Amino acid sequence: MSGTSEGQMERGGKPAEVRRRSGVGPSVDALGQDLAHEAWALLFEVMHAHMRNFPALAAEFELSPVQAHVVRQLGEGPLAMSTLATYLSCDASNVTGLVDRMEVRGLVERRSSEHDRRVKMLVLTEAGAALRERLLERLAEPPAVIANMPEGDLKSLRDIMRRARER
Amino acid sequence: MSGTSEGQMERGGKPAEVRRRSGVGPSVDALGQDLAHEAWALLFEVMHAHMRNFPALAAEFELSPVQAHVVRQLGEGPLAMSTLATYLSCDASNVTGLVDRMEVRGLVERRSSEHDRRVKMLVLTEAGAALRERLLERLAEPPAVIANMPEGDLKSLRDIMRRARER
DNA sequence: TATTGTTATACTCTATAACTATA
DNA sequence: TATAGTTATAGAGTATAACAATA
Questions:
Q1: Of A30, B3, B44, B48, which is most buried by a Cβ count within 10 Å?
Q2: Domain range for residue B58?
Q3: Which CATH number fits the domain that encloses residue A117?
Q4: What tens digit of pLDDT does each residue of A151-166 get?
């Protein structure tokens, strides 16, 4: 469930254009454009192009996009199936088949929890961990749009995102 | 249950930092971290949570993620099926079923091209265009991580992304 | 009774290959 | 022959519902 989505529904309320010019809410610049909206639109545009490439990136490792996500998550330590389902924002029933396929390929293992015998903990195999290292290095490669930025922009961007993460 | 299961504990580990080899790639700062890599990692982390929410956002309009993408693309004007396949980075055969489902829902129409009768052009119906307007407004809403930024950061971010887009 | 993981079922997205109707 | 779109088929991700084992 997406907890942030309800407060934004417009059921007879004022459309976004009206709010933008009303002077209520965030700062408005000289063009009458909400600054946050503009920055977000630009960021979205830049990130969208890159995110669309993610399936192809995962395929470089013969992983589906979701499998790549799982490999990434699982590096932090053992994870219960149900916890993984929460992280993936999907129903627990899907995790069974997902893990089945990854187990067949020797990437993950199911281990029964000793505390609660209903629970199965997932861990990366040695092969899975090795694959994860390569995947993380590949993910860490900045796309051209970032790599081509001048040093000043990179430093500003880094600092802005550091602050954003702290909030 | 004291210390009985170190190996089974969930999320017990430390975040595995990606180690950067020095001397590889562009400039390296005092920490031995490549600046572009660091900025990219932060941006990726901040954006990742939001991008993962896209299926739920599309579902607010009873669209699959791909259908939402199509509605967005189709606003620019009529599009050949094959061109849409290129934009979606998928095989043309998939577009048939995709458009079938959207046509049944009255969101798009197929129109035979007059120049080349093999080609079918896709256009949004009136209902599809109306849905697109609502979808674009929803997509334009900045997530909390952006909306909560101070004005100075927002302006810097906007300017950096404007420059990046021009390159 | 409630929870964890599984199974069964159905729908969508995706790829490959074979087909059609045009060009 | 080559191209645009379709159909057939298969595999993967997703949701809901019913179920067994365990708590």
A1: B44
A2: 33-166
A3: 1.10.10.10
A4: 999 999 999 999 999 8
